[in-house]
Design a protein that fits this description.
single chain, about 325 residues, mainly alpha, Farnesyl Diphosphate Synthase, 2 domains, 16 helices, 2 strands, globular
Length: about 325
């Protein structure tokens, strides 16, 4: 049984060995660039962890796992372009280093490269893996569309928001776990339970991301605090603030949402003060803990020796213990 750090090291080594040799090289330079920027590598790691629950040799799952990481980075490349973001992991984004057209075309090539790697799944499980991945890829596009549509709405419900983050964030974690389970020849019930574990841990993770964007510490969170407030992002907290606010609080929130020019620090302080008054930090933490507990409950029903589940418990703790 691999340890978590062993799996991460294996993934990192395999990523450095990835080669895109078709001409022209200029098409693949942006792909190699974004993959070189690092990241948590949590999705390919989950593939190998889930596979390793059921069999010792995970080598046949490596290329499909890499395909999932290439796909994830493809979504980041296009997200950055759509958001006109300047930085990704503290380095210039692809469309800033090159240009928008290059980012689009190299992103398209990344998606195809992801399918190519996932296509190297062993034949007996290839169709099931491809069907799962294709459905997941479409769901992620749906989540991004919802996210874009929410930008112009002020009536987004909590249920709609949870569905959006399920599609945009959680389904890829769930897909990684189920892919690994299938390639490990897990019982079908276990593969589905691991999928549900991924959904719940993904929802908890994204809700915590929203929480840390308001209440985190820049030094440990890794990005500036208050970004969601500044761009009026429809997060769990803003949605519930608009739902729970008094008329006075709602008027103040809507005033800040409507302002085109403002002092960023003032807006962050004013909106955070309303969140404090409404105890939204506590409400968020309750929701996060509920999803986290559901994820842990999924693990208890797996047909696996309890000690083999320690690695998934460890990675869950790492995901959820980013400090504020």
């Amino acid at each position: 049984m691999f340890a978590f750090n062993d799996i991460l090291q294996k993934i990192e080594q395999e990523i450095t060995r990835l080669q895109f040799t078709y001409p022209p090289k200029s098409l693949y330079d942006p792909i190699e660039y974004i993959l070189s920027l690092g990241g948590k590598r949590i999705r390919p790691a989950l593939v190998l962890m889930a596979c390793n629950l059921y069999k010792e040799n995970v080598d046949t799952a490596v290329n499909p796992a890499l395909g999932l990481e290439v796909f994830h980075n493809f979504t980041l490349l296009h997200d950055d372009l759509m958001d006109d973001a300047d930085k990704r992991r503290n380095k210039p984004t692809v469309h800033k280093v090159w240009n928008a057209n290059t980012a689009i075309l190299s992103g398209d090539a990344m998606l195809i490269a992801a399918y190519q790697l996932i296509g190297e799944t062993e034949s007996e499980s290839l169709k099931e893996i491809l069907d799962l991945f294709t459905r997941t890829a479409l769901e992620i596009c749906g989540g991004q569309q919802y996210d874009m549509e929410f930008e112009s709405r002020t009536d987004v419900t909590e249920e709609e928001y949870i569905e959006m983050i399920r599609l945009k964030t959680a389904v890829l974690l769930a897909c990684a776990l189920k892919m690994g389970a299938i390639m490990g020849n897990a019982p079908k019930a276990d593969a589905e339970t691991l999928y549900q574990f991924g959904i719940n841990i993904g929802l908890a993770f994204q809700l915590q991301d929203d929480l840390l964007d308001v209440y985190g510490d820049t030094a440990t969170f890794g990005k500036n605090i208050g970004g969601d407030i500044l761009c009026n992002k429809k997060t769990f907290m803003l949605i519930n603030a608009l739902r729970l606010a008094s008329n006075t609080q709602k008027a103040e929130l809507n005033s800040w949402i409507g302002k085109k020019t403002f002092d960023p620090a003032e807006k962050i302080a004013a909106v955070t003060a309303i969140y404090d008054q409404l105890r939204l930090k506590e409400l968020s933490e309750e929701k996060i803990h509920a999803y986290y507990n559901q994820a842990m409950n999924c693990l208890t029903s797996l047909n696996v020796a309890p000690e083999r589940l320690n690695i998934l418990k460890e990675v869950s703790a790492r995901l959820m213990n980013r400090q504020s």
